[in-house]
């Protein structure tokens, strides 16, 4: 077909104009176009956590995420916890029968050398929501809030974070912060710290607040290797004591328990943690995760965690994952195995095993199946052994003959289903 | 950290290799190589840039090219193209960027009298273009022809619907578009001159530090990769080549190139072996080069008067 010179020029101008239109699109316009596939992502899971002869937690979780066409997404999660069993009261095993009162006035007697436990039954309901919105192609904002309720504890908080990608998407910088408000209203009243356990609590409900900040950096090191580092800092203020836990008062010579006092903790705590994690894809089927974490706070508690996961894709639809975790923590400055009778009282004292020196080992396995269509099912089983220092150097008298912190065995079973549509 | 999601995406991390190229008597430059869009890609960054600047420029270029590849690849089932092709006659609502590309494709169709057609990719099902591979039967071609033709699509931005069975392929535009986009993004941060080369589709930006142009070699289609026919010097603009010496079939002693006429379903006959065009943008250069080949014997005539530099290799 022969074109006139004028027709040719007109067509060329048309092409130029169309090219300019497509090439002058601004970044935000393109970022709006960038989006996760719109639709629903639904998850349902059940977790069963059992410490041998202690706490059992049954926790069903339902969550949903709705991604919109503009790339924004809204997510919500609902968790129900049913907790039953017994947790250590803080009193030391003494080799003799022990009688401890709870804030609600119940008297409990423990025989022999076992760890005094306090029976409890509670449930917790927690809801969590977040909204993610891409601001530009490289900058994403996420805001969220949560609330939870137990019979004696209420918590609410909000959080926000910003993630910035470099244009290559090889580097991501993240900053975030959160704030939390808790109300604590112990059953039977709140005891006066370090008062005798036999004195009925007289204090009422109280509060706790927390602020946290996080900075993180993620880098794609190579086609197979992803590295991430972050630092977080949290400031807690308010009532940080455990209202149901006691400290044994011991005879400084014989080590036998003569009385109990309510525990006492500072009303401020600054916690910091540094985390380094790496994901390495060995080949198309094998992925190895490593995570190292160092934690320290101004209560003198320090801990180190090493966590390794190895995931093997069995075929296009199934995978298995092995998991091992090693954890070590030192004890807090005011952790004690018993207050010597007759000595001046310290300002703070706790025998809560969670603030004592401890090692733990976790081993676990996970199996997942991508189901025909768009679903996924997984089952995870983990075993953890928690080992406190049951024979401390400063044990006195009969304490030397007893394991003050017997090892605790914990089994976790997790079943989950995810559906995309 | 949400380690599960990173595990799922492992194996898709990507790599850029940056090296300094210095030859005696020549101005040194940085060469960043990466793989995208089914082939090797590179960015050449003028010598005065620091290694960090070179890496940053390369990251911007590769990041944008990968983004466009993900979005418009017909080999990925999560791409926009896959969503459109999978709609089975239903309406697909597309984003602004895709809308502009479809408008551009519509213009190409119009100004080429229907020769440049993004719905003609379906012919690849029967034409493989491996040397010695047989020419498809006439009946098979006839069967596909009713499924080709941009005018059969209902396009009113942002809604597109294709007749069931039809397929869209933005392969003829996406690589050139990616070269332009990547270059314009990195030009915002890099003060130095550079070249983006996506497997032969290029965008060149600016004079080098010594005041000369980058020299872009033109491949001899008969001896591709071995001999360079000549060099093009461009200060700023896009260069694209259409025609490929390696992809053809022989039919009754006639050499059929890989560019198909969407109206006949048959390769363009008497077409030049390769056409290289230099235009203000790579996307225009690519379109003009392809339309020129589709015009067959009229290629040169078509290119004259377009206001662009071109090289036709018979």
Question: Could you walk me through the main structural features you see in this protein, from its secondary elements to its overall organization?
Answer:
The complex is a heterodimer of chains A (421) and B (314). Chain A is mainly beta and 421 residues long. Helix content of chain A is 6%, strand content 57%. Chain A contains two helices and 21 strands. In chain A, a hairpin with a 6-residue loop joins strand 12 and strand 13. Chain A is elongated, with a radius of gyration of 28 Å. Chain B has 314 residues and is of the alpha+beta class. Helix content of chain B is 30%, strand content 26%. Chain B has eight helices and 17 strands. Chain B has an eight-stranded antiparallel sheet. A three-stranded antiparallel sheet of chain B has the order 4-6-5, with no helix packed on it. In chain B, a hairpin with a 2-residue loop joins strand 5 (154-156) and strand 6 (159-161). In chain B, helix 2 packs antiparallel against helix 6 and helix 6 runs antiparallel to helix 7. Chain B is globular. Chain B starts with a helix and ends with a strand. Chains A and B meet through helix 1, helix 2, strand 10, strand 11 and strand 14 of A and helix 1, helix 2, helix 4, helix 6 and helix 7 of B.
SSE topology sketch:
The complex is a heterodimer of chains A (421) and B (314).
Chain A: H1 5-23, H2 27-33, E1 39-51, E2 56-67, E3 73-88, E4 98-101, E5 107-110, E6 117-134, E7 139-149, E8 153-165, E9 171-184, E10 206-222, E11 225-238, E12 246-250, E13 257-262, E14 268-281, E15 286-297, E16 302-313, E17 318-329, E18 339-340, E19 358-371, E20 375-388, E21 408-420
Parallel strand pairs in A: 12-18
Antiparallel strand pairs in A: 1-2, 1-21, 2-3, 3-6, 4-5, 6-7, 7-8, 8-9, 9-10, 10-11, 11-14, 12-13, 14-15, 15-16, 16-17, 17-19, 19-20, 20-21
Chain B: H1 3-9, E1 17-21, E2 29-36, E3 39-46, H2 51-72, H3 80-85, E4 91-93, H4 96-111, H5 138-144, E5 154-156, E6 159-161, H6 171-187, E7 194-198, E8 201-205, E9 214-219, E10 228-234, E11 237-242, E12 248-251, E13 254-257, E14 260-261, E15 266-267, E16 274-279, H7 282-294, H8 299-303, E17 309-313
Antiparallel strand pairs in B: 1-2, 2-3, 3-7, 4-6, 5-6, 7-8, 8-11, 9-10, 11-16, 12-13, 14-15, 16-17
Helix pairs in contact in B: 2-6, 6-7
